[in-house]
Amino acid sequence: MRSVRRYARAAFPFRIPNSEFRISVMPSLLFWIFAAMTLVFGAAVVLNRNPVASALSLVLSFLGLAALFMGLDAFFIGIIQVLVYAGAVMVLFLFIIMLLDLRAEECRRINKVAVVGGSAVSLALFVQICLVVAELRGSPDHFPALPATRTDDVRDIGLLLFNNFNLPFQVIGVLVLVATIGVIVLSKRELR
After folding, report:
1. What is the 3-state secondary structure (H, E, C) of 26-57?
2. For residues 140-174, b (16+ Cβ closer than 10 Å) or e, as one string?
């Protein structure tokens, strides 16, 4: 903990009067572990032939991304990442995967033209990203630290959602319910 404080003093050598500025720094080792986890399992989503393994890789990629958000002190976004994406969306994906015929998917052959084309587009995107990053220059000036705020993110988002956007929230809930009932009806009809 002392090394983190020493690093924080070196990175932010200024003081803000009359504020309770708290510096929270994610250790570099944890950042690289979670970043590598997110990238590796994100690539596994695309490279796996089995849809169930691909969906589970997506869950692990979401968990790594949530850990990165929590390292940035964005705890609400990290928890929502786990609850909404790794929880609800993945249940929906696994429900759709259950409706697929997995034997037919495993028997499909790899399209070599699509693999070569996708690899070429990925390589072009990687080269463009490298060229853009090579042109970036860091700022020599340090930005002053933001004062610590004592706001409640969950309360503010809840008030905004249920006061200003109550009707769209209810419409989306009904739409998801109708879509779920429609999928169940269609899957029952297919089994007969």
Report:
1. CCHHHHHHHHHHHHHHHHHHHHCCCHHHHHHH
2. eeeeebeeeeeeeeeeeeeeeeeeeeeeeeeeeee
Q: Indicate whether 121 belongs to any domain.
A: no
Phi, psi angle pair for 24, to nearest 5°: -120, 120
Q: Report yes or no: 161 and 169 within 8 Å, Cβ to Cβ.
A: yes
What residues make up the domain containing 44? 1-13+23-109
To the nearest whole number, what is the mean pLDDT of the chain? 78
Amino acid letter, residue 66: A
Residue 99 has pLDDT above 80, yes or no: no
pLDDT digits (tens, 9 = 90+) for 152-165: 777 777 788 788 88
- Enter the pTM of the model: 0.56
In a shared domain, residues 103 and 8: yes
